[in-house]
């Protein structure tokens, strides 16, 4: 057995070359992990401790889904979470019929129709069935959704509401369609018992149900509170929002109409995607002006955090996107991916660590800090690759960085899932100094692929990274704090045994969607029972 230590962490190597354990301070086990390949998933398809509660008919409403259109993490969640929940529920999805959806080779059967309402046009509902049986309802309205460009606009809008000029109409139409399906008004032969709505683009759905006088329970999940869907108050009439709703207890946010606030106010329950972010958004630093309302929801027991997971496709042993598969028993594939990434990004061969950033390039993600840290990383013998899309100014800064450090910094401005997977697989460290991070999927993907995240201790990053065990966390979002964590990463990198122990620990992270089935099932059950009680008492 070997034994090395860094900052209070003792590391023991097992004789069999497979079992490892990490302890803090040498005494108290912080995380004892027996690293066996393949032990990270439960055999129980219904999930860890999934309760034997009744199955529900759920309509999962989203503005992006990785099967067709993905801007960021919401696309991944929309593709994976309903599939995990389908083990226990009759769950179907509603998305706008974007150009990519209509152009896909899947058959779309027309199954429903919705009339115009205020300035929201009439539309049809199509149904498509995925290979795995998942049913997706698509909202057919070519004038709103069939366009060249992203789901929110052509620019660096991210989840923003300010991309396409008619985004208020586009996503009010989606919200109203969800409400109409929920109310049984769409002519479908299927009616959900509850709606599961995601982010600002679906925020008006529970509000429309409320204005219709329909008691359909709903979960509203906040993936990112910073994007709120704010519009001029004068747009209310066009969107079919009653005048009486425009007040501080309703959809008004400092004189504007807020889709996000509508969802929070009117949904039966609000969730967000990690326990820490659920707490953070009740404070002024993270609440984006909605902290008072969210605190109130929390006090009523109507705000909770259910962490995201990752799906089976993120497995370095089987991922066909990788240059070569690998596992914690065989690192040759990891090295082959690193060679590919270095070549692909024009970097020279190096014995130093490869740092990566895979991200929407926006202020939230702290890319400015990474740009400031880059010269220090290069000077210390590291290399850096960036893949991302976002604010034009940031993209230009990244291009300049690559020009300044040829052979040491590589940049790809764009979105490419396959390259992103190779980068997770090939890199040694993932940089994620996010100012806030509701959950974050990238750090989980990186861990799974043996790349240690270096991240700000916030939101889901704080919940999914064990500092010094499965990655590195720093407390203040400033260059000094970030650099300290980077320096720690360098010293771990040069302490080979510890580095490989951390890699192995990171790769066994138990972040699977199956773990979300039980908490969502309990929540669905609770809000359905409450809605039933309410209906009986008002009958
Ligand atoms: N250029 C590129 N090419 C290819 N892939 C790229 C890419 N840029 C980013 N990605 C991918 O986009 C996804 C990003 O997901 P994250 O959850 O990390 O952040 P995001 O801020 O988008 O999500 C928001 O919603 C999710 C879901 O709830 C929360 O986890 C998160 O905290 C919140 O900010 C990952 O799958 C990543 O690999």
Task: Please give a quick description of this structure.
The protein is α/β, with parallel strands linked by helices. The protein is 34% helix and 20% strand.
Which descriptors apply to this entry?
539 residues; alpha/beta; Rossmann fold; 9-stranded mixed β-sheet; 6-stranded parallel β-sheet; 17 helices; 20% strand; Starch_synth_cat_dom; Glycogen synthase; alpha-1,4-glucan glucosyltransferase (ADP-glucose donor) activity; glycogen biosynthesis
Word description of this protein:
The protein is of the alpha/beta class. It has two domains: 57-310 and 515-529, Rossmann fold; 313-511, 3-Layer(aba) Sandwich (Rossmann fold), CATH 3.40.50.2000. Helices cover 34% and strands 20% of the residues. The chain has 17 helices and 22 strands. A nine-stranded mixed beta sheet has the order 7-8-9-6-5-10-11-15-16, sandwiched between helices. A six-stranded parallel beta sheet has the order 19-18-17-20-21-22, with helices on both faces. A four-stranded antiparallel beta sheet has the order 1-2-3-4, covered by helices on one side. Strand 7 and strand 8 (123-129) form a beta hairpin. Helix 9 crosses helix 12 (417-426) and helix 10 (367-379) runs parallel beside helix 11. The longest helix has 25 residues, at 514-538. The protein is globular, with a radius of gyration of 24 Å. Residues 1-46 have low confidence and may be disordered. Residues 72-74, 76-77, 223-224, 273, 308, 358-360, 387-389, 415-417, 420, 437-442, 445, 460 line the site of adenosine-5'-diphosphate-glucose.
